[in-house]
Amino acid sequence: MKQLQRKNCQRWFMTTMHQGQRISGLWKRIEMHSQGSSRFRPRILVDVSRIDLTATILGFKVSMPIMIAPTAMQKMAHPEGEFATARAASASGTIMTLSSWATSSVEEVASTGPGIRFFQLYVFKDRNVVAQLVRRAERAGFKAIALTVDTPILGRREADIKNRFTLPPHLILKNFEGLDLGKLDKTSDSGLASYVAGQIDRSLNWKDISWLQTITSLPILVKGVLTAEDTRIALKSGAAGIIVSNHGARQLDYVPATISALEEVVKAAEGRIPVFLDGGVRRGTDVFKALALGAAGVFIGRPVLFSLAADGEAGVRKVLQMLRDEFELTMALTGCRSLKEISRDHVITEWDRSRIAPKL
Q1: pLDDT for 61-91, tens place per residue?
Q2: What one-character-per-residue DSSP string does 273-341 give?
Q3: Where does the record place the FMN hydroxy acid dehydrogenase domain (predicted)?
Q4: I need a labelling partner for 331 at 20 to 30 A (CA). Which of 59, 174, 236, 320 fits?
């Protein structure tokens, strides 16, 4: 019976969810649209016999600037869920971000072995729950908090409503086990939407970043920034970094693609804190574009989930290797031997077609 439930979970994940998003067209239109509008300006006759992809993220050295974004309920995609993702990230020498709504706890993920891991945080109405969770993540060796700030209420996810989405009975939100917060109740529409409405604190505001800093020494990344105005406030609030994200284009229609918003945020940050891009990355060329526009690194979500569903840990390792190889190839063919050599002069976008080429 359990094996059948697991197979049904994976089948649902790979068909209903994926096809629903493809049919709606929202994620393709909004999350990815602008990726193809950037063009490269490659430099030639550069010795690219050696290429260094290593990056330093919040002081931690990683093998490449490609990291894993927080995605919830991974055991719906594969029985090993977050365990498989954590092992694959560690083997690839990069960072995994664990979702608050994971089907494996922070302690369980830490038990998979060494690795650099961040923890994504939703702020619940019960602040004691939040404080406990943050301290547990810190004790488990997580290195940063990625505070999601674009979800005071869940966007209208029509596929979830149509399918009356909820967790299957053999799975729970493991971080909240024993707190009566781990299950999603069945409803007439989306169980997740009802859960968010009942548990997530809609009063979350900039002052709460200061509050978080009183309960943890971990650096706080603000995830969900799309404007220069909010970037400047994040700086004043003491954020350690910014993650440009539109929540996979599932929250608010007509927000810009992350790649379109990136440069505005980077300019507003003025180099004082790192800016990362989360969303729309499907190829190594997308990684290069993001770095050329000022990102310190990228986070990937859907590619990890789909590869996890297809082949577990091996699938996640494969997709990370594919992106690494494509990124390295792009660096070689644009004449870049290290990340610091990737510059704004290597890309031209639809919003600066008339930009004068730099003098040689």
Answers
A1: 999 999 999 999 999 999 999 999 999 999 9
A2: S-EEEES---SHHHHHHHHHTT-SEEEE-HHHHHHHHHHHHHHHHHHHHHHHHHHHHHHHHHT-SBGGG
A3: 39-352
A4: 59
* Other C-beta atoms lying within 10 Å of the C-beta of residue 2: 8
Active-site residues, by number, are 247
Residues forming beta bridges with residue 151, ordered by sequence position: none
Instruction: Answer yes or no: are the C-beta atoms of 216 and 134 closer than 8 Å.
Output: yes
CATH superfamily of 4-352: Aldolase class I (3.20.20.70)
Write 338-342 long-range contacts (CB < 8 A, 24+): 338/51, 338/52, 339/52, 339/53, 339/54, 339/55, 339/65, 339/291, 342/288, 342/291, 342/292
The SS3 call for residue 124 is strand
Which residue in 120, 116, 135, 140 sits closest to 58, CA to CA? 116
Cα separation, 59 vs 54, whole angstroms: 12
pTM assigned to the model:
0.88
State yes or no: 28 annotated in a binding site.
Answer: no
**38 known ligand binder:** no
